[in-house]
Design brief:
By secondary structure, the protein is an alpha+beta fold. It is built from twelve helices and seven strands. It has a five-stranded mixed beta sheet with strand order 2-4-3-6-7, with helices on both faces.
């Protein structure tokens, strides 16, 4: 089935995600007494629904005329690492750009980890995407088209300004004015427009943006990352934090304990 997914243009992948995950546009966050931050979750049934929709689109793609190739777009088809690649402790974060708890991690927890462990060479951070919805897919795609030196600054800008471009009150307002599908479509279009504005600020013009979201290799890579997270670590929530192979809670104290145990 995954081989079929890889034949899909990212634009069609995103289009089918609208059909498969409309209910996940605004995923509820779970509460947990064991964590300072809750994780945003995706059910197994929803993941299967997305995969089914993408496979159907892939079958349609086989009979459709080949799309005209756009300009070359440099994409990152490997892990992006913050810190010394040879650091003794590896922190892996599976994150969604639309997850408010991921934003909290990047805005409040990561700076402390960076100062104490990453900047000192004791740990490195590997950020991996875990897509929750159509907006997440488009925004994540664009992060793979900026230059490597601008990847982390772009990611941080998206998390820092998340409530501005992923404006939940606006979605709720649209719901009060339109039917559910129309409200979702309008919200997706407006939000993606805001993300595109930010992408232009980090060096992508509209031609590069258009080419980026039609780059099949990016869609293949994102699907590979997501599937590997599910298979290797049973990831079904964001943010999921893994320290040297062991899942840790998302709060600073828990991650600090996990890192110190590995350094002992």
């Amino acid at each position: 089935m995954l081989k079929q997914l890889y034949t899909l243009k990212i634009a069609n992948f995103i289009k089918m995600m609208i059909l498969g995950v409309t209910a996940l546009l605004l995923v509820n966050c779970s509460d947990s007494s064991e964590q300072d931050m809750a994780s945003e979750t995706v059910t197994t049934e929803a993941t299967a629904e997305v995969a089914s929709a993408v496979v159907e689109a892939a079958a349609q793609e086989q009979t459709a005329p080949a799309a005209e190739e756009g300009p070359d777009v440099g994409f990152i088809n490997h892990d992006m690492v913050l810190g010394d690649p040879n650091a003794p402790v590896e922190i892996i974060e599976y994150a969604s750009l639309t997850c408010n708890h991921c934003a909290t991690f990047h805005n409040t927890v990561l700076p402390r980890l960076k100062e104490k462990y990453i900047d000192t060479g004791k740990a490195k951070l590997v950020v991996r995407s875990f897509l929750l919805n159509i907006i997440d897919a488009r925004a994540t795609t664009l992060t793979r088209c900026v230059t490597q030196k601008r990847y982390f600054p772009f990611m941080e800008a998206l998390f820092q300004r998340q409530t501005q471009w992923y404006n939940i009150p606006e979605y709720q307002r649209l719901q009060g004015l339109h039917d559910a599908q129309t409200a979702s479509n309008m919200f997706v279009e407006a939000t993606i427009g805001e993300v595109a504005k930010m992408a232009r600020q980090v060096g992508l013009n509209q031609t590069k943006i258009d080419a980026c979201v039609n780059n099949a290799a990016i869609g293949e890579y994102l699907m590979t990352v997501q599937q590997a997270g599910i298979e290797n670590y049973n990831v079904n929530a964001t943010p999921t934090i893994i320290v040297n192979g062991n899942i840790a809670n998302n709060d600073y104290a828990s991650i600090e304990r996990a890192i110190e145990a590995e350094l002992d």
